[in-house]
Amino acid sequence: MIVDTNALSAIADEQPGIRDVLQRAILVAIPVIVLAEYRFGILQSTRRSHYHKWLRENLPGFRILNITEETAEHYAGLRLELKHGGTPIPSNDLWIAALCREHSLPLLSRDRHFDVVIRLRRLEW
Fold it and tell me: Taking the complete model, does pTM exceed 0.85, yes or no?
């Protein structure tokens, strides 16, 4: 599964239910976009040192998904689909959705706007 930024935050904060979902996953991947958003959030946090330490210790346990030419093709097609459907989603989330399609993986997120993306299965905790 691919984790969205709110899911990564939930993992770091050990929110109830998140561990159960993670234990069922064969693979847990973080898009580089999510990593950037999370690092941005850390910079604004009053618990900055705690989250930096958590990330440093736990990041090796995740697979990081980078943007590739194939991802760009999925992004372009998806953006056009959503534009024609009148259901655009935020740009960073388009990249995340493109990675989900590219790797045929579900997305762990509480953001319901992902539900408009055809061929993307969103999981919650």
Answer: yes
